Amino acid sequence: MPIFMMFGKYSSEALKGISPERTDKAVELIKKNGGKVISMYAVLGEHDLVLTLDFPDSEKALTASVALNKLTGISFTTSPVVEVEKFDKLIAEAKVI
Q: Cross-referenced Pfam families, in alphabetical order (predicted)?
């Protein structure tokens, strides 16, 4: 299954709702959309949260991203990722036009 990174940014309202229970609900929502949590981190800087998730396809990742926003009030940016080894192989196969 494809891997996706989700970058989350808290709103003032979203900060008020932080709890282990809300996190559990978020994980369940991801699972209900066919996803699997690989990692979840709170971070400093441009983003407040970084999640690494495994989804069957981009449609499920998109659905989960929007549903998480509705559940938590956290704005998410979701991006597919490619392992560096695979990226190197793809680039090596690219032809110059």
A: GYD
The DSSP secondary-structure symbol of 51 reads E
Q: What is the DSSP letter of 33?
A: T
3 state SS of 10: coil
- Residues counted in the chain: 97
Helix (H) / strand (E) element for 41: namely strand 36-42
Taking only the tens place, the pLDDT of each residue in 64-89 is 999 999 999 999 999 999 999 999 98
Angstrom distance (rounded) from CA 36 to CA 52: 9
Q: How far is CA 65 from the centre of its chain?
A: 7
CB 60 within 8 A of CB 35: yes
- Beta-bridge partners for 78: 6
